[in-house]
Fold:
Amino acid sequence: MITLRETSINEAQLLWPKAEEHLRQAISDNESDPDRYMMQLKAKIFSGVHALWVMEDEKKPVAYAITAVYSGDGIVTVAQIYLAQGKDLDMFLDKMDEFTVWALKNGAHFIEVIGRKGWERVLRPYGFKHNFTSLLRRITEELH
Structure:
């Protein structure tokens, strides 16, 4: 049976080495300094600003995701899911209701999934619509 759950800070600390291995795959192409990014992400998770989620198959971790809740003027507006990474990302789609319950519990009005372009097609049947696309270019000393 596949389950998805938010971890406590203590559990996130125990799971971090394996989770980092998975999550690093989601950021390696997009970050100029993946080590620094992962160090900052770890600090946010361990301080409770962001949360580490684990998906388990028969109690064995198979995928991870990061969530955060953002507010403006003291009103929670957006719950973000990002850096979802694991052996079968379709498993996350089956658990979207659990993320929705979490978002509502945290007072969010929207869920924002941040990921690669392919997520747009996959999430459209779940009521998500395209908001914006962020394009990234690594800068080198060569000019174009």
